[in-house]
Amino acid sequence: MGLHKVADTRSALFWYPGSNPADRKRIQPESLLHYCRNIYSQRGDDGIAAEIFKRLNITDGFFVEFGGWDGVYLSNCRALFEAGWSGAFIEADAKKFQDLKNNYREAERVICINEWVGLPGTRGKTMDQIASEHFPGRPIDYMSIDIDGLDYRILETMALRPKVICIEGGFAFNPLFTRRIPDEIARKNLGQSLPVMMDVGRAAGYTPVCFNQNVFLVLDELAGPFNKIVKQPLTLWRDAWFNESDQFRAGMRRFRARSSNVRAVEGNGLFYLPWERPSILRRMWRRLRWRDLRG
Length: 295
Description:
Helices cover 37% and strands 12% of the residues.
């Protein structure tokens, strides 16, 4: 049974606590965010994946997820397993890996791997090495990459080419910020800006089709069913912004304002989001008020 069979209409698939009807009207009509649903995922990834695989006519595939945690909590692939897929969960932490093994001890379709996914010449093993050891030659239909910072470097350095990739990164920076930041900063759970993440995906032969804090990438040769989606960084970032709650957006504004790393690399010119930039008079009033408050 394919994942989309769990709930295969927009109204049924749309259950995401961060969204509200008024803000959803500001999302482009063709956005895959309209299919958001959390079964186990955090930001509607289960529903987005369901719609992607429905359009690609993939009902019984092979997934790879790392960091896999326990294979259930906030997993992007647990729902696929329950829909009949096979796959591999990779987790480096010993305790979490034990929980992972316990959760899948009777699941013959799942490979549990205790490895650190690293870059060539660094700690752990590369994704290519892990694949050749544990599931050699196995085509991968879906890969979820979440290592809190250098996710994009995994994609840049691996030879594997899954049909669909869900890769974290892009929300920390203004959607108009296009400069690639040093790995030393990105590894602090910041990643790269969405324009850079999309460029990395395109360089690897993928079409970005959705963004929700994760970037969803589909191999170029399979991306036909997603042609109507506007795939500009500003549009995808704005869609994701209005797919989130007021509380999330307020938290993200505070984070962007207070993060010394974000402010240092972006500069003051990109402090405000394009659709929220206040008038010149209001900015002057804020500066004067700030001076008054400081005495």
